[in-house]
Automatic annotation (TrEMBL):
SUPFAM superfamilies: NAD(P)-binding Rossmann-fold domains. This is Glucose 1-dehydrogenase. Belongs to the short-chain dehydrogenases/reductases (SDR) family. Residues 25-202 form the Ketoreductase domain. SMART domains: PKS_KR (SM00822).
């Protein structure tokens, strides 16, 4: 939908949800075997995109692909490690004419600053920063070579807005993702490529559910208290933000951070 169509909206015009329609688009989603990545793959497929799901968890990938194809969508599975550039490049090539990449794969790590080891830092940066960098570089290169516009969505975190004990590796890698997002947005914009980050608050996924049931309950209760909306976030809440950024609905957005966080943090 063009700006002119929006301004002259009336009977017979496309509905306001038309800009969210991804029919004919091709999307690559990393981390698609679980949590936010899975919800994103399912939602983008429901919006009409052909979805290429990438993850190191083959069983989880198969489950995501089945969720999509069972509803009549189109999904392809790419088992890969996002820290291996050649594997990421191969998935981008296999996807063909790529329009959208959502770099969602990530890991959690906690250790105090004084106890953080080199190997912790290297592992978290390899997945959470380099994995996102490789997906963005290879996708943007392919889009530019094909002369196609596109949308890249990176997965940051609310951890970039606050500091908490134990979160040095994780939040530093996510802060690097924000800088990557803004820098690439500045560089790739003239090619018609938009780059935006999503920075979710606490979301109920396997990543945040690896605690004891009691600890889980306490964390969720705290999140409900802290959110003006009085509920915890679900993967679909983040997927909706990715859909917005992936689609033409956000055609004038680039270099921005979108925060599906239930209002727990309200930065400028
Ligand atoms: N859950 C939250 O509260 C929350 C909040 C803010 C940001 N995030 C971010 O959202 C993203 C998804 O998190 P989630 O909560 O859905 O977690 P999750 O653990 O459910 O999913 C992460 C997925 O990434 C995949 N992955 C991890 N390392 C990989 C690698 N090297 N190669 C390929 N795939 C790999 C895993 O197999 C898994 O399928 C992460 O980047 C995370 O940091 C999550």
């Amino acid at each position: 939908m063009t700006l002119r169509q929006i301004r002259s909206y009336g009977p017979g015009m496309p509905t306001p949800i038309a800009p969210y329609d991804l029919t004919g688009r091709t999307a690559l989603i990393t981390g698609a075997a679980s949590g936010i990545g899975r919800a994103t793959a399912v939602l983008l497929a429901r919006a009409g995109a052909t979805v290429h799901c990438a993850d190191r968890d083959e069983q989880g990938l198969a489950r995501t692909a089945a969720l999509i194809t069972d509803k009549g969508g189109t999904a392809h599975a790419h088992p890969l490690d996002v820290t291996d550039r050649a594997q990421v490049r191969a998935a981008v090539a296999a996807a063909g004419s790529l329009d959208i990449t959502a770099a969602v794969a990530g890991i959690m790590h906690t250790s105090s600053v004084l106890e953080t080891r080199d190997e912790d830092l290297d592992r978290v940066f390899a997945v959470n920063f380099k994995g996102v960098l490789y997906a963005c570089q290879e996708s943007a290169r392919a889009m530019i070579e094909a002369g196609r516009p596109g949308s890249l969505v990176t997965m940051a975190s609310g951890a970039v807005d606050t500091a908490g004990p134990g979160l040095l590796c994780y939040s530093a890698a996510k802060a690097a993702v924000v800088q990557l997002t803004k820098t690439l947005a500045a560089e790739a914009g003239p090619h018609g490529i938009r780059v935006n980050a999503v920075a979710p608050g606490w979301i109920r996924t396997p990543m945040t559910g690896r605690h004891s049931p009691e600890a889980q309950e306490q964390t969720e209760a705290a999140m409900v208290r802290m959110s003006p909306l009085r509920r915890v976030g679900e993967p679909e809440d983040v997927a909706a933000a990715v859909l917005y950024l992936a689609s033409d609905a956000s055609s004038f957005m680039t270099g921005q951070i979108l925060r599906p966080n239930g209002g727990v943090v309200m930065p400028w």
